[in-house]
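Below is how a single chain appears once it has passed through the pipeline. First comes the sequence as given, then the structure the pipeline wrote out for it. We keep one example in the README because the format questions we get most often are answered faster by looking than by reading.
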Amino acid sequence: MWDYLRLEVRRTLRDAGFVIGGIAMPVMMYLLFTNLGENDRSWKAASMVGMAAYGAVGSALNTGGGVAEDRAIGWLRQLRVTPMTPREVVTGRALTGSVTVLPAIVAVLAAGGLVNGVRLAVWQWAAIAVLLWLGSLPFTLLGLGNGYRLTGQTTGVANMVCNLGLAVVGGLWFPVAVFPGWLRSLSAYTPTNRFAQLGTSVADGHAPTPGAMLVLTAWLLLFGSYAVLSYRRSAGNI
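Resulting structure:
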């Protein structure tokens, strides 16, 4: 399984589309949004976490695109005749997604500290990176579910819609405080909003709230079930 993991990580990091869309784009958006007009340091720190979360979500969902491509070329069929169990195949893919979110997180955090002058304690930088890394797992499972269930082209569209929709409604691009009341209430139940809160809480100097952990865990279970069901369904289509 570890050989499979290394193979998938190398394939992903060599993809120019992943590097541009998953790493460069969040950094450029962060620098653009925080350097238009007058923005205080607190907004630059909050936006840094939001854009790091946005990059992590996009990278995690991208794992599903690779799965859909593998289905199309028959790679999953070949994996089914190897000694690896289905659980190991899915675990390897999930670990791939977990590894490939790190460059996006680190790149945005570096832009915040080196370009925008965000100042945090060393433990805060480390805690934000680790929490965003671990918290991206639900989105990796969502991407895998789409990849196992949909065609390659449809998976790309579905992942893009999920990424943009969840980013906007979850408040990764703009402060939730500017949302109308009904949208602010809805945002509190989205996985992206609670995902970003893992980092913003640490940036503000305190631990993530139990509510954020509870909502994110619920989405983890939901997306995990979706991935498992999609994988089982794919067995009859490859």
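The first helix runs from residue 2 to 13.

See the next section for the split statistics.
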